[in-house]
Each structure stands twice: as C-alpha cells, then as structure tokens.
Amino acid sequence: MRIATWNINSVRARADRAVAWLERTGTDVLALQETKCSDAQFPHAAFEAAGYEVAHVGLSQWNGVALVSRVGLAEVEVGFPDQPTFGDPDPVVEARAIGATCGGVRVWSLYVPHGRAPDHPHYAYKLEWLARLRTAAAGWIDPQLGDPHAQLALVGDWNVIPLDTDVWDVSAFEGQTHVTPAERAAFAAFAEIGFTEVSRVHLPEAGKYTYWDYQQLAFPKNRGLRIDFAYTSPALTERVSQVTIDREERKGKGASDHVPVVVDLAQETE
After folding, report:
1. CB neighbourhood size of 28 (10 A)
2. What are the structural domain ranges in the chain?
3. pLDDT at residue 122 in the model
4. Burial of 78 (0-12, 13-18, 19+ CB in 10 A)
5. Which is the CATH superfamily of the domain at 2-265?
6. Residues 18, 8: contact at Cβ < 8 Å?
C-alpha cells in the first residue's frame, strides 16, 4: 500500500493536478493539508471520478485537512481527543486534524499550527497542540488504554524544522518559529512514546526538503525546508519499505509550495 502526505495549498486550485499525481503514482491514500475551503467547496467529484473516497474538514479559506482513499475510508474522526482551541473572543477547534481507517491503517492528516512568532499566543497554542496530540497518540498504542499493535500513521505538515540541516540556512530563522528548542522537543517527543519518523530513516541526507517559498527563486536555488513528515506506530514501522520525497511535483505552473512525501508499505504478514 502507498500512503502520501501533501500540503496542497488550496485544493480547489490544484484538484486536477492532485488527481493526475494520484493516477500517475498509484497512491492509495493521500493526506492533504491546507485545503483552504469549506466542506461544501471541496472538489469531491474530481477525486470520486478517479475512484477515491474523500473525508474533509474545512471551515473557511484557511487551514483544512482531508483524506483521499481508494482502499476504504472508515471510522472518520474529525479532530483528535482533547484537541485545543484557538481564537479570541470565540475560540474554535480549527480544521487541522482528520483521521480514518484506510486499508487497515489508521491514517491522520495533520496540519500543525505555524506559531507565527515565539512571543505570539499562536506559538503557545502550537506547543499545546503538539503536546495533546502526543498524549492522544500515546493512548492509542498503550497496552491498557489502546492497542500496542495498532497500525497508525501521523502524517502531514508539522511546521517544525527538527535539525539545522533541514533548512538551507538555519541562521535565516534566528529568533523565529520552527527551530526553537521547545518546538524541536515537542516534535521529538513522539519518538519517545514509540513512534518512528520514517522519512528520516529512509532519507537521512541533508538537503532533502519538502517546501520551498514562492519568493526569491527559492526552488531553483534549493533554499528549502523539511517540515512534512510521517510518524508511524511500531506495528506500522515494521511494514515501511521505502519513503520518497517527490521533488518533481514542485516544478511547473501552478505547483504547491510543498511536495508529496510518499510512504510505501509492504504487505502485512500474518
């Protein structure tokens, strides 16, 4: 089975491109982030015509996450348990997490808050969001609370640069979000509960970026970031045979500023 994650940066603008990519790559499950549309505006028909089911949550032109699957889409869950709210004066649970069981794998499409600035309320929200996701994930594979054999994939745009080598010039982020010790610790905490970030295992080299800004010729100059990741539970990690970053998808007219991260799974053994 092939699972991928992709911050599409407006699914309405790139639905045809996404469907063409799905058909070209034979991807079974695609987790999308930053769909930038309400549920009513999501282009369901384009994906359904290609043989995919869709689960989406979006509240406006901001955020939005989806799962697109041709191997089943069951037990859809919008938001993880105890997901924090954000907003003043009317806080809401933002459209940043959706989970479903696809081909026997519980896949979560995640769009981690940006943080904006270390002294901004959004930064504290980001850290709380990651902490509560970690608590939920720990429970899902806990022998008493959940299932230690559960096959789980936490994939998406994590908005964290875990290593200095995951950015073209770490000094450009001095005093900004994504590289602070607290964010990096919050990201690493998922490994502490037993999950494995499998793109790092299969693609450990520096300069393997997943995002390039549209400005200042960032892509041609390879001034990128690695912020899109796939954490897998112990049972699913055993099945991961390959991880690729589809850099080619950043090329051409109308590309997203992110590219797909693709996780290939071997057939489950008895």
Report:
1. 21
2. 2-265
3. 98
4. middle
5. Endonuclease/exonuclease/phosphatase (3.60.10.10)
6. yes
pLDDT single digits (tens) 137-178? 999 999 999 999 999 999 999 999 999 999 999 999 999 999
Q: What is the pLDDT of residue 108?
A: 99
* CB 125 within 8 Å of CB 119: no
Residue 75: phi and psi, rounded to 5, are 50, 50
CB 243 within 8 Å of CB 5? no
What is the structure's pLDDT at 270?
Answer: 59
Judge whether 35 and 109 are in contact, CB under 8 Å. no
Percent above pLDDT 70 for the chain: 99
Determine the Cα angle at 77 with ends 190 and 130, to 5°: 25
CB 84 within 8 A of CB 91: no
- The reported pLDDT for the residue numbered 263 is 99
Tell me how far apart the alpha carbons of residues 99 and 73 are, in angstroms, rounded to a whole number.
Answer: 9
- The residue ranges of DSSP E strands in 9-142, in sequence order, are 29-33, 53-57, 65-69, 74-78, 97-102, 105-111
Q: Is the pTM for the entire model greater than 0.85?
A: yes
Amino acid, res. 196: T
| DSSP helix/strand/coil, 92 | strand
Q: Is residue 203 helix, strand or coil?
A: coil
The type of residue at 216 is Q
Q: Directed axis angle between helix 181-192 and helix 121-140, to 10°?
A: 10
Q: How far apart are CA 236 and CA 238, in angstroms?
A: 5
Instruction: Dump pLDDT digits (tens) for 18-77.
Output: 999 999 999 999 999 999 999 999 999 999 999 999 999 999 888 999 999 999 999 999
Run of H or E including 132:
helix 121-140
Q: Which two tokens stand for residue 197?
A: 């970030």
